Amino acid sequence: MTDIIKINPVEELILFIRGQQVILDAELAKLYEMETGALKRAVRRNIGHFPDDFMFVLTSEEERLICQNGTSKNTGRGGKRHASFAFTQEGIAMLSSVLRSEKAIQVNIEIMRGFVKLRKFALNYSELSKKIAEHDGKFEVVFKAIDTLNKPITLKKPKIGFKKTI
User: Looking at the DSSP assignment, which residues form a beta bridge with residue 118?
Assistant: First the structure.
């Protein structure tokens, strides 16, 4: 029987910017089923709830790196006119108190689960790296054996034809 793995779409929205895991305002607005502008207005009305470690504004360079697919022109032809807000886990938790809707609460629960799952994955990955480093010498023997097995075998081909005898 095959196991079915359900991927939480929230985890795919989490980006790593300035050394922090964040979700952008436009993605959060989609999850909350509201316009990005409405979300930004709510944040600006309550800006004291969002210190720099909860939310920050992306630089134009960061925007370019994120929008490499060319969807945003930023030239007045319908592209983005304002810089994106990037919300950390704490900032997203604060959003639920600012937005105060049942949808915001349910979405925040799923987002927090996504952040926790990524944190557990990172922890397991670092533990695995430590274990490999501890046993590096033992793995070296295995890697050498694999390298030896991967080398092509060259067989001497017998000469075809008659041998000259005296």
Answer: none
The predicted pLDDT at position 73 comes to 45
| Residues 108 and 50 sit within 8 Å (Cβ to Cβ) | no
Q: N- to C-terminal Cα distance for the chain?
A: 72
Q: Do 52 and 94 form a contact (C-beta atoms < 8 A)? A: no
Q: Where are the alpha helices (DSSP H) in 5-158?
A: 9-13, 25-32, 36-45, 60-66, 89-99, 102-134, 136-150
Cα-based angle 16, 22, 24 (whole degrees, multiple of 5): 115
Whether residue 10 contacts residue 109, with contact meaning beta carbons closer than 8 Å, is answered with no
Q: What is the pTM of this model?
A: 0.60
pLDDT digits (tens, 9 = 90+) for 67-92: 654 444 444 444 567 889 999 989 98
